[in-house]
Structures are given as structure tokens and as C-alpha cells.
Amino acid sequence: xxLSLPTFLLLSAILCAHSLAAPEKxxxxxxxxxxxxxxxxxxxxxxxxxxxxTPRLDSLARDGVRFTDAHSFSAICMPSRYSxxxxxxxxxxxxxxxxxxxFDPGQVLIPMAMKSVGYRTAALGKWHNGxxxxxxxxxxxxxxxxxxxxxFDSFFGTPRTHSEPPLVFVRDHWIVGLEKxxxxxxxxxxxxxxxxxxxxxxxxxxxxxxxxxxxxxxxxAGKFIADQKPDQPFFLYLAWEAPHNSINPAPEFRGKSKAxxxxxxxxxxDHCVGTxxxxxxxxxLAKNTLIIFTSDNAGRYQQAALRAGHRTNGELLGQKTDVxxxxxxxxxxxxxxxxxxxxxxxxxxxxxIDLMATLADAAGATLPAxxxxxxxSELAAMLDPEKSPPKRTEGILHGTRSLALRQGSWIYIxxxxxxxxxxxxxxxxxxxxxxxxxxxxxxxxxxxxxxxxAVKEQLYNLDQDLGQHxxxxxxxxxxxxxxxxxxxxxxxxxxxSKESGSE
Length: 503
Description:
Blueprint: H1 5-18, E1 30-36, H2 55-63, E2 65-71, H3 77-86, H4 110-115, E3 120-125, E4 154-157, E5 170-171, E6 174-175, E7 185-187, E8 197-199, H5 202-206, H6 213-226, E9 234-239, H7 260-282, E10 289-295, H8 303-307, H9 325-328, E11 329-335, E12 344-346, E13 350-351, H10 355-363, H11 379-383, E14 394-399, E15 402-407, E16 410-413, H12 434-437, E17 458-461, H13 477-490
Parallel strand pairs: 1-9, 1-10, 2-12, 2-13, 3-4, 3-9
Antiparallel strand pairs: 2-11, 4-5, 5-6, 7-8, 10-11, 14-15, 15-16, 16-17
């Protein structure tokens, strides 16, 4: 049975009032969950980038823990954000994930769990989990249900990816700068592009300068932090816009990196993270604030960055959209000066689907039955990374054309190829060859075509072959069969759309 939000909050308040184990007033940590958009595994200095400088993000690794085997559920945006906020695999939704609000009435999300123990909650940045109940959103009316109906006290940000119309900011339930005599609609007729074209809303568009998005979000975050009460903890979900296409850093950041305009965009993101860190220090809140920084999926290769010698996902095979490691292995940093030791590395397998239960655990919140059905707390793996490996031993991962199963160091992919959109498209201006991206795989030739003798399934031991160069499907048929059957068991009765959610 799914509890309604009012019922859940009432029951939680009663439980907290009577619980002897509840933390004392003022002892619960503030929590900031930052999610970048399409940031590559190798895009930060602390993960190996040599041509991009990220000193503020590197400071989180220096003062906290850096995970080297952390994964988003999906290699594209929307499904990963859904799994982060719900602790639930998106393939269980059973309907298209686009435009309409993706969450079910009464479904418990992270902010609801935090509110149940007295947190003030806010969402800033890219929402990308839909508004309303119709696939055709009326952008000129109240946008609900949305973030406020699922536990956030306030919202300011973009409805979707910053390159997808409507190109506006939304505050709470309304588009910022909306004018009655200039209504907004999105035209999806042929020739308007994959996501359509915005018609109307000139003032609203002007109030959302594309090259200043994250700078504005950082300013909003600073205001939110300054407005907090010392005796009430807060939860801030801060979903940055960068470095998703289109790559558009502000003028003052252009030419500052050694990895082209893409590197400049990442360095602007680092600056914005620094603005938030400075706001915490100014308010004296840094010591008891748990900060997590990660990305919704891994990066997409950019020609200018490659020409400069920067590989966004390092030695990993694949990129955004792919079920190969380069699609979903992400940076993951956690800092909490009162609890997390400094300069530690967690090498165990971490899945973002465990974030909801982990943050609830850190806040001392008890999740109701049915909440975070696929996730569990991995707080111990953060607090004691050297002695406490993550409890998770398996997890499902998603590319736009395939699911995959991770078990220990092994990953099984039931399809051939990338499981995503890394395929040769010589007629497309954005297309890059496998040779340019330095991809090498035993089933694929250097032009990116499957070899005639390519195996129908894929199996890799990541401890021995992180770059997924050699498919072991023919070498270990017993493991292949066992993992195939386990993936089928875990997804039994679920709708498994190969194209799930917008990028």
C-alpha cells in the first residue's frame, strides 16, 4: 500500500516524537545532493583530467571520500534522475517517461523522507521528471503535479535539459516571466527537431540566459543557504545544467581550460560548486553538512576536447547512452567533516539507486514500507571507506538499447555492441569514429561495425579488463547462463523498453 504524502508525514512526525533513537535537535546533518549533467568519468582533476582544472571539486575528494566504481542506473538523464529520487528502477514504471510527471500519487521521494524528520527541502536546476498528468503540457497554466507535490518546499530551475524547449525558468508552479499576451507552446511538427521548437514566451526566454544558467543556480543556492535557520536542517537537491550539450560557458570562462570549450564549461561548473561551498562556510554550516557530488550519467565525447587530448571517460569503453562502462560509471564524491574521513578512496561497487536510503539513514529518517524498493543504505561505505565495502553485490544498469547486470566484478550485457547510440554515423556532423575515441573491443572493428563472428551476448571481468576490450561470453558459458537467468529473474514481469526516457 502506498501512503499519501500527508499521511506519511503525519505518521513520521508521531514516530519521530516517540523514538528514543532519533538524533537530538540540531544534530542532523544538512544535506546537499549535487548532480551534474553528462559529466565524464575523467572530467575532474581528481579523477585524472590533465587539461581541465577543478580545484573546488577536488577539495571534496581531499576532504572526503572519492568513489572509483560508482554508477548511475542509466546512461541517459531522465531514468537516472528518477532512480536517484525514488530508489526504484525506472523500468518498473510501465509507461513512457516524457513530459508528464513520472511519479505516482503518494510515491515517497527523498525530500519526503527528509521532511518527515523536520528538514526544509528545495530543488534547484534541471528537473526533467515532468509536470502535470498529460503528455501535452500546458505551459501557461500551473505546472502541477511537480517538485512541490513530491516533497520539495520550493523549486527553481529548468523544466527539462537546458537545450530542450521550453527554454525558460520555472519557480515553484509557474514559468518565470510568463505573459498572458505571449503564451508558450512547443511545436513538435516535422522539421522542428527531436524535442520541438518553442513558440512564444519571449520575455521568459530572455530571463533565462543560456550561458549563465549554472551561475544563476549557484546564486540561488547561496540565497537558500543564507536563509536557513540554525536549528532546522535542510536538504538541497542541486541539479546542475553543465556540461550537457549545448556547450555554452559564460564569456569569462572561455579559453580558460586546455580542453577546448568543453573543458571551459566544466571549469565553470567547478566555479559554481565553489560558490556553494563558500556560502556554507560563510554561514558556518560546512562542518555538519553532507555534500554529495555526482553525475546523472557519464560523458559524451566532444570533438574539440578530443583534439586537445582530453578523453571525457578516460580508459572506459563507450559514452553517454551506452550500456558499456563509459555510459554509466560516474564520478562520486562525498564530504561530511564531522563523519567522513578525509582523502579516502572507496573502490567498491556503488549504485545511485541506493542514494535515497543512504541519505535517509544519514538524516535518521525511517522509510515507510514500499519506499526505495530497489535501494538500501550504503552510509557505512561512505563513513568508513577503508573497512566497509558497499553491501551491494549486484545491480541493473541501462543503455538506451539494452539493460545489463553487474555482479561483483562481472558485467553481463544481453545485446551486441554498445547497447546505446555509439554507432558510426558518417553523415552526421557530431559523429566520431571509434578510432578517434580510441575504442577497442573484440566484437567491433575500428570503424565501429560489428564483426561477422561477434558473439550475441557480452561478458566482461572489470577487475581484469576495465576497458572492456575482450568479450568473455564464449570463455565462461556457465557464468553467462547464470547471469542471463538472473537478469531475467530481476526484470520478470516488467516492461523493458529499450528507449526509456529523454536524454
